[in-house]
């Protein structure tokens, strides 16, 4: 049994979208044979009511610690874009309160593994190395972010009315390529959603050994559900319809 601390960008319950579904079921799987604790950001619309997140608290043995998502003004984002070597995603969840709580947790207790869920939290790695050098860092990269930004650039560049977005993407591609490569090289292990994502990351880090862990759903939740009408569905979508 390993002692594992997981860092997530939002409370992964209820699991209703890609990141929270992935995070929740990873926690559920790991908790079967390990001791799991969770440090997570809390979005404005999320609840910490124990009754509403009871399954998550049970999996983590009540060890769920939350910090409010930091607010970033447009002016701050623009300033960072012009002056910082980090990509926008590297600033999105960089927060002193989160870092302080993380430092407290990893100095009070030795974790065998600290798992970072998403590139937005990758900047915690130096802190972990400093205060918990014995911990193994696992970086779960939810997307091949550089490739996604490159595709956004290609799409926006074809439409003059979206050239402002294309310029933003062009800047981010350069910064993201360095940042994503650094995160993969700094972690002790890297996991990805698919083999295709691993191939994209190897364009940045040629010798990268990444383990693909596909996203999943809990089919037991649907075991007793019977169709009300005799209809054939070609697509079942579970998640939100607000992806940018």
Give a verbal description of the structure:
The chain has 244 residues and is of the alpha/beta class. It has a domain at 3-73 and 93-144 and 183-220: Glycogen Phosphorylase B (Rossmann fold, 3-Layer(aba) Sandwich). It is built from nine helices and seven strands; from the N terminus they run βαβαβαααβαβααβαβ. The protein has helices at 18-30, 54-59, 74-83, 88-92, 96-108, 125-131, 145-157, 163-186, 195-202, and strands spanning 3-8, 35-42, 64-68, 113-117, 136-141, 189-192, 210-212. Strands 3-2-1-4-5-6-7 form a seven-stranded parallel sheet, with helices on both faces. The radius of gyration is 19 Å and the shape is globular.
Keywords:
244 residues, Rossmann fold, seven-stranded parallel sheet, globular
**Approximately how much helix is present in the residues?**
40-55%
How far apart are the first and last residues' alpha carbons, in Å? 39 Å
CATH class division of the domain at 3-73 and 93-144 and 183-220: Alpha Beta
* Biggest sheet features: 7 strands, parallel
* Number of helical elements: 9
Assembly classification: single chain
**Approximately what portion of the residues adopt beta-strand conformation?**
15-25%
Task: Spell out the helices and strands N to C.
Answer: EHEHEHHHEHEHHEHE
Averaging pLDDT over every residue, what do you get? 93
Structural class: alpha/beta
Q: What is the CATH architecture term of the domain at 3-73 and 93-144 and 183-220?
A: 3-Layer(aba) Sandwich
Low-pLDDT ranges: none
**Rg, please?**
19 Å
What is the fold named in CATH at topology level of the domain at 3-73 and 93-144 and 183-220?
A: Rossmann fold
What is the CATH homologous superfamily assignment of the domain at 3-73 and 93-144 and 183-220?
Answer: Glycogen Phosphorylase B
Strand runs, count:
7
Shape, please?
globular
Physical arrangement of strands within the biggest beta sheet? 3-2-1-4-5-6-7
